[in-house]
Recover the amino acids of this structure.
């Protein structure tokens, strides 16, 4: 059973918006930092956005200025607000959690290696 549960995916036209949600159990949310990844068919999984427990964030260059990661501590939930969606944003989007430790660089935070919990993903499809 997946510990992280994503929702909010769907199909939109280019320029549209979606908000993804990731619900985590308390034992993960309170001890881990969270991120969103995506994987398009035939491509490697790539880091999209990361948020630390102090609210600081990292973003992939391809989504800067369009996507926003945020968290609601009362709901143990992390969000990914996606605006200005493009066809190249089409992918399965995954939520992931990495143990909190020392500060991460952007490269570390957006690579899959530190992450030990993953959701099953939610599909985002953007049509032109």
């Amino acid at each position: 059973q997946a510990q992280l549960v994503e929702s909010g995916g769907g199909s939109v036209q280019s320029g549209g918006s979606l908000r993804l949600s990731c619900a985590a159990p308390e034992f993960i949310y309170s001890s881990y930092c969270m991120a969103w990844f995506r994987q398009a068919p035939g491509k490697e999984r790539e880091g999209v956005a990361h948020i630390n427990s102090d609210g600081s964030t990292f973003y992939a260059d391809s989504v800067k200025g369009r996507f926003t990661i945020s968290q609601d501590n009362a709901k143990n939930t992390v969000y990914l607000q996606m605006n200005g969606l493009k066809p190249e944003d089409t992918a399965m989007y995954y939520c992931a959690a990495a143990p909190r430790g020392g500060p991460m660089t952007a490269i570390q935070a957006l690579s899959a290696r530190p992450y030990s919990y993953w959701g099953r993903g939610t599909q985002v499809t953007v049509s032109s």
Observations:
- The chain has a mean pLDDT of 95.
- Helices lie at 26-29, 106-109.
- The radius of gyration is 13 Å.
